[in-house]
Amino acid sequence: MQHSDFIPASHPVLADPASCDKWLERERFTDSNHACAAFIGLLDALEDAPPQAPACVLILEKLRAPVQAALDEQSRRYAGRALPLAPAENAAFISSCDLWLAQTRAWRRLFRASFANPALASDRARLALRTLECIAGLLTTEFAARREIDPTHWQWLHQGYALAEKENLAQVEVGAQDSPNTTTCAAVYAHVLLVHLANCAALAQREFLWAGRWARRWASKVRLWRSAQNSGGLAVNLEGMAGAQWTPTGTPGAALRFVDCAPVARSIRSRLQKLAEGAAPETLGLGKDCPPSAAQMLLNTLLHCWSDAPQSRQFPRRSTTGTTELVTSFAGIHQAIADADFDGDGAPWDYSRNRVEQIQVFQRVVDARAVTPGVALPERWQTLDESANGFRLRRGAAGVRLAHRQLVAVRPGGASQFILCEIRWLTQGQDNSINIGAKALPGLPQACAVRPIKAGPLQSGAWTQAFALPLSKGLAPNLVLPIGWYQQGHELDLKLGGEQFRIRLDELVERGHDYHRVRFAAVSSS
Question: How many CA atoms lie within 13 A of 183 on its CB side?
Answer without folding.
Answer: 21
